[in-house]
Amino acid sequence: MKKIIIIIIASLLFLTYLYNNFFTTRMLIGTYVNMNYKNSIEDPNIPDTLILLQNNTFSSQYFGTGKYSLSYSISGSKLNLIFDDVIHQINIHPNIKRINFNHTKIILCSDLNHYYEKIN
Questions:
Q1: What integer pLDDT is reported at residue 42 of this predicted model?
Q2: Of 117, 67, 120, nearest to 92 (Cα)?
Q3: I want to staple 77 with a disulfide (CB 3.0 to 4.6 A). Which of 23, 61, 85, 104 is the partner?
Q4: Chain centroid to CA 74: how far?
Q5: pLDDT for the residue 15
Q6: Residue 84 per-residue DSSP state
Q7: Nearest Cα to 17, choosing from 75, 62, 67, 66?
């Protein structure tokens, strides 16, 4: 009986980890707002809205427009944002998390709690 309880608890913890850390493109489509940017040294450190569209493109007041894709590792999903700067192409690779089953967060700087939070 104890083995079954341990297996059930371990399975629930594993499923919780998968739910909070792994995403599909369809799950990410929506509008995100920049949170806790005032305390961050990471860009963007201004109010911003990031919109991820169904056709793997995005728009933002700060980054402009570009393309995005997802990559996966054992630690979870990572968003790859590709956009053109004035001089060259820039790639950023923030992690994606769902904290305590709440809204999806695109983590820019975890130490300073700087992230984009999904609002719809």
A1: 73
A2: 67
A3: 23
A4: 15
A5: 94
A6: E
A7: 75
Stretch 55-83: mean pLDDT: 92
**CA 29, 70, 74, 34: dihedral to nearest 10 degrees?**
-50
- For 102, list phi and psi in degrees, rounded to 5: -90, -160
Mean confidence (pLDDT) of the chain: 90
Residues linked to residue 60 through DSSP beta bridges, in sequence order: 50, 64
DSSP secondary structure letters along 98-120: EGGG-SEEEEEETTTTEEEEE--
The label of the residue with tokens 């904290």 reads: 99
- Which tens digit of pLDDT belongs to each residue from 37-53? 887 777 788 899 999 99
CA distance 15 to 19: 6
Q: What is the DSSP string of 40-95?
A: -SSSP-S--EEEE-TTSEEEETTTEEEEEEEEEETTEEEEEEEEE-SSSEEEE--E
